[in-house]
Amino acid sequence: MASPTQTEAFDKAAGDSRKLKAKPTDSELLQLYAFYKQGMQKPPIEEAENPGTFDLKGKAKKRAWQKLVDEGVTKETAITQYIALVEKLKTAYGFDAEKEPETIGAS
Fold first, then answer.
1. Any idea what DSSP says for residue 80?
2. CB burial of residue 1 (10 Å; 0-12, 13-18, 19+)
3. Contact, 1 vs 73, CB < 8 A?
4. Nearest to 81 by CA among 17, 3, 1, 2
C-alpha cells in the first residue's frame, strides 16, 4: 500500500484532531488553527474577514495565523507542522478513533 499523500495525511490529521480524548490547551488550539488555516489558505489571510470588535477569540485566532504568515511559513510547511502537532497531541491527550467528532461551533 502506498503511503498517503501530504494532502491525505493533512485531511486525516484534521479529522483526528477532533477525536482527541481531552481538550488541548488554548495555546495548542491556536497553533492548530494557525497551521490549519495557513495549510488550507481558503481564503488567503489577505482575503479573510476580520473579526468583530468584541470577538476576542476570533482576534486571537487571526493573530496566531498572521504570526505564521509574518514568519514566512509556507503552505507546505504549515501542513507538515499541523500533521506533526496533531500526532503530538494524540500522544499527549489520547486518541479515540471511534469517537464521534464534536460539531464545530456546537452550543
1. H
2. exposed
3. no
4. 17
Residue 35 is placed in which grid cell? 497551521
Which amino acid would we find at residue 101?
P
Q: What is the pLDDT of residue 41?
A: 87
Q: Once rounded to an integer, what is the mean pLDDT over residues 73-98? A: 94
Chain segment 1-29, per-residue pLDDT in tens: 334 688 899 999 999 999 999 999 999 99
Residue 24: closest CA among 85, 103, 68, 96? 85
DSSP assignment of 16-62: HHTTBSSPPPHHHHHHHHHHHHHHH-SS-GGGSPPPPTT-HHHHHHH
C-alpha cell at 40: 488550507
